Amino acid sequence: MFDLELEGKVAIITGGSDGLGRATAKRMASEGARVVICARREEHLMQTAENLRKETAGSVRGISADVCVPEDCLRLIDQTVQEFGGIDILINNAGKSAALGLEELSDEAWQDDLELKLMGAVRMCRGVVPHMRKRGGGSIVNASTGAGKAPGSMALPTSVSRAAGNNLTKSLANELAKDRIRVNAVCIGLIKSAQWERRSGGDSLEGLYKELGSKVPLGRVGEAEEYADLVTFLSSARGSYITGTAINIDGGLCPVI
Ligand SMILES: NC(=O)c1ccc[n+]([C@@H]2O[C@H](COP(=O)([O-])OP(=O)(O)OC[C@H]3O[C@@H](n4cnc5c(N)ncnc54)[C@H](OP(=O)(O)O)[C@@H]3O)[C@@H](O)[C@H]2O)c1
Known about the structure:
seven-stranded parallel β-sheet, globular, single chain
């Protein structure tokens, strides 16, 4: 039997109302974890939490928060601890696509991206680590992309923010290993989610996925559930000897290991 031992564990998933975060919340709640999802749009978040409770018969709580706002991160963490008694798992999943060239990007656009993808994760990690120590350990998974390891052209500022996130992942894995807190990153390629639905802008979504998939060695885009499976495994007792890694989940798209 392959027991993930997630029953009763408390997990925060940022950006859990859509796409990859939603699929991860569903997977973890199905495994018996008590899941807290956050996002900025409160009504949509609460509806997602309710739907996930019905779909899984599990524990899914929505707490609205913007990871770019320090007070929101603290409130999210405090409320989770008050309601569930601690925190075992953090998935820094909130993010959005930003892939442009040097001359198209203002200072503000650079700062916004770093704020969301790097500082959001920094704040959440800083906030949850004392609670994980009290539990005798924990697991943090940071969403990243292959461009953080191997930047192409016109992939700014994401490729830089994600490279910083990968460095943060390794730095924290080194710092927190003594506390039995594992820290890993997952480097995403092209995976079906709400962001692609928005970007298809009324054109055929299947057509877009087919076109994107033709660039991938495995010949298709990924499913949100495939991301959820990896993140859930890394967060579980079955991933107990894995820390300080950045694992590609991209059908072979990233040119480096
Ligand atoms: N899907 C892909 O192909 C792909 C590729 C590379 C990387 N990624 C990364 O994977 C992660 C998940 O992406 P996705 O494709 O699932 O995107 P998505 O479908 O657009 O979902 C993004 C989620 O993040 C939330 N969010 C955005 N900004 C936030 C903020 N400041 N604070 C809190 N929540 C926030 C959104 O809700 P609100 O808008 O209501 O806040 C939503 O729940 C992101 O980090 C993304 O950059 C995805």
